[in-house]
Task: inverse folding
């Protein structure tokens, strides 16, 4: 049953990434785009774990962990830049 | 790789639930009205969506490898710790960036904000 479900779950995550991309494209404000990037990296992480599950390879987990860390750092940096005009005080 | 049918069904149900909540989060991100409302949608994707996929992955690799495969708990813990911090910082940035972006009044409350707050 998992094999039958996996392609559709992958498609659902890909569609939600496309919706994030739409929000990233239209904005309208800069914090909206930061929020869209944040959601985009969360969905990317889940998609990578899902691909690892699909091809039965546990290596993709490390890429997902890396995306989680870099995504959080980039969200914090962009938000601080928008709020204060500088990243490091 | 043949799984026990009950476990197979459990993993499939977790994946379908995760996909549903990821879609709900992204549709909320697209359709809701202003930034403070849009901030609610992706929280579902980052907790229930990612959490469901990671629990399914833990179950699958634990059974397929005949040994506990708990590395995914690292991602789960990291995401659950950092998602509220990121949301707080983004809300802070929105309020500094756009002075009119304020939290909407609670339902049933008068739309005028009191000056005491």
Result:
């Amino acid at each position: 049953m998992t094999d039958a479900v996996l392609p559709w779950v992958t498609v659902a995550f890909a569609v939600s990434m496309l919706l994030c991309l739409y929000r990233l494209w239209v904005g309208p404000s800069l914090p909206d785009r930061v929020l869209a990037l944040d959601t985009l990296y969360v969905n990317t992480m889940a998609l990578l774990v899902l691909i690892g599950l699909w091809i039965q390879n546990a290596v993709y987990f490390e890429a997902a962990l890396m995306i989680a860390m870099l995504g959080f750092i980039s969200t914090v940096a962009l938000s601080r830049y928008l709020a204060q005009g500088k990243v490091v005080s | 790789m043949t799984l026990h049918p009950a476990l197979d069904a459990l993993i499939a149900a977790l994946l379908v639930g995760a996909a549903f909540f990821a879609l709900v989060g992204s549709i909320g991100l697209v359709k809701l009205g202003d930034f403070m409302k849009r901030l609610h949608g992706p929280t579902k994707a980052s907790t229930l969506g990612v959490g469901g996929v990671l629990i399914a992955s833990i179950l699958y690799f634990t059974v397929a490898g005949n040994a506990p495969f708990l590395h995914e708990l690292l991602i789960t813990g990291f995401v659950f710790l950092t998602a509220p911090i990121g949301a707080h910082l983004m809300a802070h940035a929105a309020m500094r960036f756009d002075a009119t972006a304020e939290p909407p009044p609670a339902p049933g409350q008068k739309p005028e904000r009191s000056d005491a707050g």
User: Anything to note?
Assistant: Residues 7 and 40 of chain A are 19 Å apart (CA to CA). The two ends of chain A are 52 Å apart (CA to CA).
